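Notes, p. 3: input format for complexes.
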Amino acid sequence: MADKRPIGIFDSGLGGLTVVKEIKKELPNEDIVYFGDTGRVPYGTRSVETIKKYAAEDEKFLLTHDVKLIIAACGTVSSVAGDVAETLPVPYFEVVSHACKAAVETTKNGKIGVIGTNATVKSGQHKAEILKLNPDMQVLSCSCPLFVPLVEEGWYSADDTVVTESVKRYLKPIIDFGADTLILGCTHYPVLSDAITKVFKGVTLINAGTAIADAVAEYLKQNGMENKDGGNSSFYVSDKPDFFKTQAAILLDEDIDDGKVQKVDISKI
Ligand code: DGL
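Output follows (269 residues plus D-glutamic acid):
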């Protein structure tokens, strides 16, 4: 059995491409439809009500492309808008629980740091999930609101002092806490991995994209829903398609043909 429908993936902007990258690595024959809400990024500083509204619209858009499952490649949506996905007609994957499981399996000293957007940290989802898996864990979560704008601006080099100074300042409490494992609770943050490990030496980073790719691969296999001969990706954004195309080519490390990034009016879906 096979299912040639594409996988739908969405985020507020570029961050979800870190998940796309892992999905493409693990499932190279799957077609992907990606939506980046570049016209309304960032989500993480907005109210829960607004994030839920945006998530519902993003999911509705992906369904118009007949996707076989939806990945919320956004820590913020995954943390606060899970209930919006309860009525979806296709399976839904979020990035919080898989990252927490990977962190609990990875830590040696039982101290896990979590970084994410304001909304993600305020939700307390990661901590709750980690303690559900193992109540002996110690968790410290910190929000890093400047990281998303830095990445969206294309500033993420570990040689950029603006980047490393921001990383130093935001991560100090977690370094002092002594975490040996750090969950990148926002999908934009893996782009800053080099800068983070330069500042926070010896820490193990948990990239939700890797964890979710494993879970999706397993699900497709178990349900006979794999695509054996796809491998195409299409990208949709709500603003600045040219900028997205340039950044996506860098982040995914591949050429993105003209016409592969299209602008859509998400409010009219
Ligand atoms: N990539 C989103 C996340 O994982 C960024 C949220 C935002 O737009 O603030 O949380």
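The longest strand covers residues 111-116.
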